[in-house]
Design a protein that fits this description.
Blueprint lengths: L1 E7 L8 H6 L8 E7 L2 E7 L12 E2 L5 E9 L2 H10 L11 H10 L9 E9 L4 E6 L8 E5 L2 E5 L3 H6 L9 H10 L13 E2 L4 E6 L2 E6 L16 H19 L6 E4 L4 H14 L4 E7 L7 H11 L2 E7 L7 H8 L7 H14 L4 E3 L4 H5 L3 H9 L7 H8 L7 H9 L4 H9 L4 H8 L7 H13 L4 H11 L1 H15 L4 E3 L5 H8 L14 H7 L5 H5 L9 H5 L6 H6 L2 H7 L4 H12 L6 H18 L10
Parallel strand pairs: 13-14, 13-16, 14-15, 16-17
Antiparallel strand pairs: 1-3, 1-9, 2-3, 4-5, 5-6, 6-7, 7-11, 8-9, 8-10, 11-12
Length: 624
Amino acid sequence: MCGIFGILTPDLSEVNLQEITDRMTHRGPDDSGIYIGEGVALTTRRLSIIDLEGGHQPISNEDGQLWLVCNGEIVNAPELRHNLEAAGHVFKTRTDIETILHGYEQWGEKIVPRLRGMFAFALWDGRNRRLLLARDRFGIKPLYYAGLGERFAFASEILPILEAISDFPRQADRTALWRLLEIGFIPSPLTAFHGILALPAAHLLVFENGMTRLECYWKPEYLPLGEHTHIGAPQAAEAFIEHLREAITAWRLSDVPVGSLLSGGIDSSALAALLTEINGSPISTFTLGFEANSLDESALARQTANFIGSQHHEMSFNLAGFENLPEVVRRMEEPQRSTTSLSLDAIYRGCHAAGFKVVMTGEGSDELLGGYPWYQGDQRLRPYFRIHPAIRRLLAQSPLVKSPDIKSMLQLGSSDVIQRFVLWQRSPRPDQIARLLDTPPPRPLSEILNDQYGNELKGLHPLDQMLFIESRTRLVDYINSQVDRLSMSHSVEARPPFLDHLLWEFTCRLPPELKLTQQENKYLLRLGMQDHLPKPVVWRRKKGLSSPMISWWRASKLPDWAENLLQPGALSEAGYFKPSEVAHLLQVHKSGQANLSQLLTGVLTTQIWHGLFIKGSHKKSHTI
């Protein structure tokens, strides 16, 4: 696991490579390296996990014409190595990433779809003066890039790019800001910084002769209605668990101990139980408890830990944790509409304190098996979308309809799954955002997603359509983005075996009704794990990682730093939000008339982000 950086420029003397590289020491405290060629430089900070002594980067092939920096783990490296050695390639290390170099020699760009695992890498082909960038299928590992004039830079984080191209215009991307407030995340390739792009998941980019070529190399392939595998629930559950077990076995590849996060839910509990069985000995597990009882799952996590016999570590979170919000925004390099990042920061800090570099995590299960509440909500509401919209709007006014989300779907939803997906993610109304930003809305996101994925969704079951969209958007740009930034800020590698692409390819072929039933979400996982875990853990409903954000915003007084950032003068100086509208939102939320905590968090974290990165105080060194 690493932080990587590189630049193509006519004048490398203008770039302080060591200082820029050391900005990412938190991503790799164990080692650093720099390669300098003609008009090109590659650098890394390394967190040593495989081949602890011999895995130095950048790494070259035999004749020194290929140079590689890679962030991540190639979990099928043993198989690739065997095949490449049989073809005559000679390896000089035991590190997993050397397979990328020899694979490129053997297959060229076609090495990328042969890789299994999580990765973001840059390969410099000196003979052809070609740069190849690639990112894993689910965007577990980040990679950003930007160009200005004759310079082209990329990195695991954005700050190194800003410092390498020192005259790059530092401006907020207004469309990205709108999207953040609208749906809770910034969809790639956008970032908060205008002109700096995220390489989309499952894409490679080739930079050659001053031109870039972007190519998608993988997408989840769901089957049309009527073509799913014919299989009963018990047999499907058994096969699913065997595929999951094999994924965990592959993803535990490491020369250091591997622990597991453990909430009270089925995802992490299944991982911890299966990892214990595979190990044949107790593992270490990590749980975050909450002072607020409505959020706390630590008792159930403790029950699971006792059941599997793990060495269990518990951390806690309360309102005082909100003091870390400015530092978390610094680490994320973008504003947030949610404060779950604070909870993630706390748990990975605990993993680091316990001496762990690698932990298994449950991300991806909800997107694989329909675990989020909106999947079940959408399933129940589908029949209503056959009714005339005027009648649905009347139904939405019924006192029996309590949920604001359900009211919104009845009023605004349609038979278009993409439109409904965006609506399920949308928290503030567009008119609220428009008043707040004092700017017209950008092109509807549903239209953009339809242009990107509409053809691939034709003929699919509505659940499969929604799972497809989720795996290409929110999973990548919200879930995985937060986990990477906040685990790596504490020098911890988070590994999500549920995002193994072979597991996904198997599950995509299964009937949707085995993933989400009328009564249960993630049915296959629950059914398959009922002999491995206590029944209360297997069949309880998802709660999910959260934070007491609503209560924090209703305090009589916020911390001084937050109050100052929300003052009319500070808001006017930054220039994003109308001060009068912010004051109105605060009044409405504090009075209990509505829950506007997400929108207010977006405002506050944008103010923090602006001060850190746009005004110039980004030059302050990163501290862990």
